[in-house]
Structure formats: structure tokens, C-alpha cells
Amino acid sequence: MNEIGSNKFGNLLVYLFFIVVTLLSVFPFYWMYVVGSNTTSAVNQFPPAVLPGTNFMENARNVFERIDFLGVMMNSLIISGAVTLSVLFFCSLAGYAFTKLTFKGRDAAFIFVIATMMIPPQLGLIPNFMLISELGWIDNLRAVIVPAMVNAFGVFWMRQYISSAMPYELVEAARVDGCSHFRIYWNIVLPIVKPALATLGIFTFMMTWNDFLWPLVVLKDSSVHTIQIALRTLNDVYSTDYSMILAGTFMATLPILIVFLIFNKQFVSGITEGAVKN
């Protein structure tokens, strides 16, 4: 009985821990909505408002009046969607090549790719801007999409997943049946690595959606602004309407939540895959 009681107490502590972690994770979104649904004066008073108010629609209407919210949201969706699809394709293709193909310099090339992860992205800001300027892509969405079409982390992630999830004998059997490497990749590898693709896709979409510095440098025209740049323009010089800004930020966060909910099962499967393999 003591052992059963200790197990129940242990399970209770685990559940309480997860409940606390969940509440801490959800609280920033809740507070964002609370601020966005109240007035700035209500938030600045002491004690501040802790319950949702009735001003969210008014604050949202002010956001739509100040910026082309739907337009910049569409720009962000185009950029994030294009970058995510290209990263999933090129990184999974490179991961398959580094894992299942044998060619001279393969290991050295992979080490070089991994080494680029140690270089701060800020160091490439000026050279990339000069290159984009020479190509005439300033104020064009291609300036944000093309440099992010593949990344070292995605190649590393897909290589590690493919090496553990796909036996080499499967590749050999497909080659004996006359399949080309691209057909093996398209018809055999991709269905196997769906959890890894979902995980990488969520991370890539979220990072691209929240990217601020590079779009700020290359997208000067307001018609091609992303949502993050447009939200920055809501700040006034002498006063800041935090309720309006947080209302816009809350609406800008919804696409990320929708993407996560759609690929939630595959994301969890990809994260826990390594823990259940023998």
C-alpha cells in the first residue's frame, strides 16, 4: 500500500508540474490578449487589469487603420510559406545525400556545412545586402526568401533523422528494382521522415515569421513590409498605445498557433522518435 501511495503521489507531482509549465507557457498569450482588449490607461493603472476587457475590436480597428494589416500578413505568409517549403525540400534532399550516398568528400562537406552554424548571422548582413543590391532585389520578397531557402541546422536535423529511421538495405533494394536516387527520395524517404519534416517545418515557419532584422534591411517600401516590421511602425514618437500594439501582436501570433495545431501530432512524434527507438 505504501508503494502504491508513493506512486500516486509521484504521478500527482508530475501532473502538477505539467500543469504549472502549461500555465506559464499560455500566460504570455493570455496577457497579450488582456492588454489588447483593454485601454492603455487600464493596463498602466495599479493594480493593472488582469481580466479581458471589451476594447479588443476597437484596438484591432485602429491597427487596421494605421497599417495595411492584411497586406503585410499576406507578405509574411508568402515569405514564411516559401521558405518553409524550400527548406523542407532542400534540407531533406541534402540529408538523404549525406546519409545514403557515397561520394568523395562527403564527410568533409558535411563538416563544412555544420561549421557554418558557428558563424553569427550578423556577420553576413553586409555581404548579403551588397549581393541582394547587385541583383536588384531590394524591396522584393525574393530578397528574404532566397537567402533562407536552405540552412545548416535543417541539413543536420534531416541527416540525423534519416540515418536512424531509414535502413540502408531499403535503399539497396530500391536500387536493385531500378529506382533512381530521386525516386527513392521522393517515394520512400519522404513518407518515412514526415515527423522530422513537420518538426523542421514548424521551427522554420516560426523563425521566418518572427524574423525582423533582415526584412528591415532589405524591405524599405511599406507595400512589401512583413508583419513584424509593420507592427514596429505602430509606435509613436511621443506616446505608445500598448493596447493597440498588443492587439496587433496577438492577431499576428495566430498563424503560428494555427500551424502548430495542424502539425501538432507529427511535431510530437518527431521530437520523441529518438526516445522510443531501440
From TrEMBL:
Q: Does the keyword Transmembrane apply?
A: yes
GO BP term, example = transmembrane transport
Which GO CC annotations does the UniProt entry carry? Answer: plasma membrane
Query: Do you know which Pfam families this protein is assigned to?
Result: BPD_transp_1
* PANTHER family in alphabetical order: ABC TRANSPORTER PERMEASE PROTEIN MG189-RELATED, ABC TRANSPORTER PERMEASE PROTEIN MG189-RELATED-RELATED
Q: Where are the transmembrane segments?
A: 12-33, 77-98, 110-129, 141-158, 184-209, 242-263
Protein name (Swiss-Prot/TrEMBL): Sugar ABC transporter permease
The subcellular location is: Cell membrane
For the ABC transmembrane type-1 domain, which residue ranges apply?
73-263
Q: How does it sit in the membrane?
A: Multi-pass membrane protein
Give the UniProt keywords, A-Z. Answer: Cell membrane, Membrane, Transmembrane, Transmembrane helix, Transport
- InterPro entries, sorted: MetI-like (IPR000515), MetI-like_sf (IPR035906)
Keyword set includes Membrane: yes
Q: What protein family is recorded?
A: Belongs to the binding-protein-dependent transport system permease family.
